[in-house]
Amino acid sequence: xxxxxxxxxxxxxxxxxxxxxxxxxxxxxxxxxxxxxxxxxxxxxxxxxxxxxxxxxxxxxxxxxxxxxxxxxxxxxxxxxxxxxxxxxxxxxxxxxxxxxxxxxxxxxxxxxxxxxxxxxxxxxxxxxxxxxxxxxxxxxxxxxxxxxxxxxxxxxxxxxxxxxxxxxxxxxxxxxxxxxxxxxxxxxxxxxxxxxxxxxxxxxxxxxxxxxxxxxxxxxxxxxxxxxxxxxxxxxxxxxxxxxxxxxxxxxxxxxxxxxxxxxxxxxxxxxxxxxxxxxxxxxxxxxxxxxxxxxxxxxxxxxxxxxxxxxxxxxxxxxxxxxxxxxxxxxxxxxxxxxxxxx
Length: 345
Hints:
Layout lengths: L1 H6 L10 H15 L3 H17 L3 H19 L7 H18 L7 E10 L2 E11 L2 E2 L5 E4 L7 H12 L2 H7 L4 E5 L2 H17 L12 E6 L4 E5 L9 H6 L3 E4 L3 E5 L5 H34 L7 H11 L2 H6 L2 H8 L1 H12 L2
Helix pairs in contact: 3-4, 5-10, 6-8, 13-14
C-alpha cells in the first residue's frame, strides 16, 4: 500500500508540495465516497489536454494516476489507514441498526472452504476485531474426511470451531459471516444447532447469542435465516440504505447498494477468508504433488520425502535447489538419486 500512496501523491516529500498533497487527498476522498466516474473523467480530460499541448510527461503522469486509482478500487477498500476507519465504524453501526443487533459486533469471524474436486479440503477462519483484520487470531482447518461437498465441509468446520476446547482457547465471536448463500448458511446453522443439543451454557457470550449470516457471491446479498440467524431486520433502516429484500421459504436475502459501508465491510471479510483458505489449500496441494512425485523415486522412503517437503515446501523448490542444498537435508547418496530422477522430469 505504501507504494500506491506514493504513486497517488499521498506521501509528502520534497517532490510534491503541500498544496498538491492536499489536492490529491481531496480527490482520493471524493473517489472513495462515490465520485469515481466523475473523477476518472476529469483525469482523462486533463490527460488529453496535456497530450494536445504536447506535454507528454504530464499526460503520462495523469495516465498513471488514473491507473493507480483503478488499482485502489480493485484492492481492499477497508484497511488500517486512518481515513478509512470512518467507513469501518459506520459499517459496524449500520450493521447493528439494520439487523437489530444488541451491540456492536466486536469480533466478527469469516469462513470459507477451498479444495479441488474434494481433495486437500481446507477451511479458513479470519477474525476482524472492531472492523479491522486481526491476523494473529486467524485459524485454518484441514477437514478430517475429504468431501466434494461444501455444505458438509462447512458443517464440519463450524462444528469444530464451536467445540468446547476451541471456544475456551479462542473465545466466542459476536457474528459469524459464512461465505456463500442459503445452503452454506444452513450447513453452518445446523452445525451450531447440533452443538447446542449437547450443551447450552458456556462462559462469556452464549452460543445462542452469536449472529450467523451469509454473503452470497453473485449479487453480494446478505443472507439471514428467518428464525435462526438471531437478527431482527429493521425495514426503516433498510429503506434508508436504499435496500430491499427477497423472501424465500426459510431465508431473507438482503440487497443493498454495493457502495454501502456494510457491504464493503462484509466483502472485505469475505474476500480475506477466501484468500486465506486458498493460500492454505495451495500449500497443501503443492506438498501433495511433491510427495506424489517423490514416491516414484526408487530408494527414497517416507522419512526422506518428509524431510524434503519440510525443507523445500514444493516440488518446484526441490527441483530448483542446488545439489549441495539437497545434500544438507538428506545426504549425498540420496541427494544423487533425487536430483538425477527429477532432472529427467
